[in-house]
Amino acid sequence: ENYAVSNYIAEFWNTLTNAAMILLAALGIYSSIRYRHGKRVTAMYVGMLVVGCGSACFHATLKYTTQLLDELPMLYLCAIALYSFIEIDKKVQFGIWLPTSLAVFQLTITLTYLFWVQNPIFHQIAFAATAIGAAVVGCNRLYTTNMSSGTRRALFRLHLLGHLGMWGGFLAWNIDNVFCHNLRSYRGYVGTPLDALLQLHGWWHILTAYGSAFLLLWAHLLRLARLGHDNLYSAQYFMGVFPYVGMKQPKKID
């Protein structure tokens, strides 16, 4: 169904649904810069923004070069998150050695994937290893950080929503892969515009965008709790649907 909606965009709905990740990442960048929460936090949201833009470029063109823009930034985002969790405190512990080591590791993976092992399984293993490393260090930081019970509950909700988004998207992606021909028939039967609701790969983009956003908000608020500022900020929603970290409104005293 390439170029079915537009003569200029190969997979119209799969391209359009990346707007969710781009918008959520942009909101995170704005929030972290506005409240001066540090370059490490902003870098995570920038990584998410690059993932969304890369995926949109790939689905718009279906070229190998843009496919790399879809796949490789996911590795870099996890590496940024890993660095942010390790260096979660205000004072940097490992200096230039840690970012240099992570950069060399990611560069090695990138070059290996580009020139020697051009197999998606290699990319998936490298991504999983980096993501698991970030998750393990992040959970360790969670359990070693003093915070209020309210903050801990808020972090639990964000973590839960993040995983629901990621695993829900993974389920939609697999259903789309297994029942692709059936779904194509159903889309032809219901017609425009209801066929857009059966674009499960697009739902994979939307759900993982929200899953990623909630997990980055979790990391964002965890760092604020580590610095003792969690009483000033909370997860809020722009227009009721776009989550971000904002400053709490002061309570009125009658």
Describe the protein in words:
The chain is mainly alpha-helical and 254 residues long. The protein has helices at residues 12-16, 19-34, 39-61, 64-86, 97-115, 120-143, 149-178, 180-190, 200-226, and strands spanning 233-238, 242-247. Strands 1-2 form a two-stranded antiparallel ribbon. A hairpin with a 3-residue loop joins strand 1 (233-238) and strand 2. Helix 2 packs parallel to helix 9 (200-226).
CA(first)-CA(last) distance: 62 Å
* Share in β-strands: under 5%
Report the major sheet: 2 strands, antiparallel
Strand order of the largest sheet: 1-2
Uncertain ranges: none
DSSP summary: helix tally: 9
What are the secondary-structure elements, in order, as H or E? HHHHHHHHHEE
| Strands, count | 2
Whole-number radius of gyration? 20 Å
Shape field: globular
- Which structural class matches the secondary elements? mainly alpha
Percentage of residues in helical conformation: over 70%
The overall pLDDT average reads: 92
What's the SSE blueprint?
Layout: H1 12-16, H2 19-34, H3 39-61, H4 64-86, H5 97-115, H6 120-143, H7 149-178, H8 180-190, H9 200-226, E1 233-238, E2 242-247
Antiparallel strand pairs: 1-2
Helix pairs in contact: 2-3, 2-9, 3-4, 3-9, 4-5, 4-6, 7-9
